[in-house]
Amino acid sequence: MDAPVTLVTGASGGIGSALCHMLGRAGHRLVLTALDQEGLDLLAADLEAGGVPVVTLAGDVRDDALPARCVALAVERFGRLDNLVTGAGASRPCPMVEMDEDEWATLVDINLSAVFRFSKAVARRLIAQGQGGAVVHISSIAHANGGANLAYGAAKGGVVTLTSGMAQQLGPHGIRVNAVAPGIIDTPMVRQGFRDSFNGLVANAGQRTPLGRLGRPEDVAGVIAFLLSSQAAFVTGALIPITGGIEILSPLSAIARGA
To answer: Which residue has the higher pLDDT, 245 or 205?
Structure first.
């Protein structure tokens, strides 16, 4: 079989960029989309310098037409599509009582509805090809506790449900669907959201996380790359936490340390 063709949304973000480099080294041909054309151009140039076949399409995941355009671009450039990673996301810390309806709708659209739209477009292509495929959604630890923004947390919870339902419906077509749930990862989105308290976030994460540090984009990218690979051929419907164990540390231990 030819080298797999993988579509990545949010490709120029912290996790997306690390993933693209990892997949490129593993022999994937890449179809990349993100909001910022300049960021995509820089990423693509870096990948192409390493010999990775890449095509890009800048766009807003809220655009209903973008998923079909990305699938068509993959087929036009590479003749097929094999995998999807939904990495596009947005959030900011915001108490529920201060959130307006427009922000709720925007964040749910970006973090959940767009995932559905890309999944539907890609699933149709994979079913038509008849050779299976793999989908990995990026959820979040916030799916379980709401996080610092309830619109984001609720949307990421929806991604978990979507993953399970897709795995059931697409499994008979040989299409595997899984999700990862990152914890606190050192990405531009996290740094921007906590720009006034990032040092405190690092220190407290060190106390509250068994592994004693924030996650790195490569920590998440490595698990996604595994889920796309043949080594995960019998894995579907799974949600894999990538959190450094922050959710298993005893609260009593944290309280005792004054965390």
So the answer is: 245
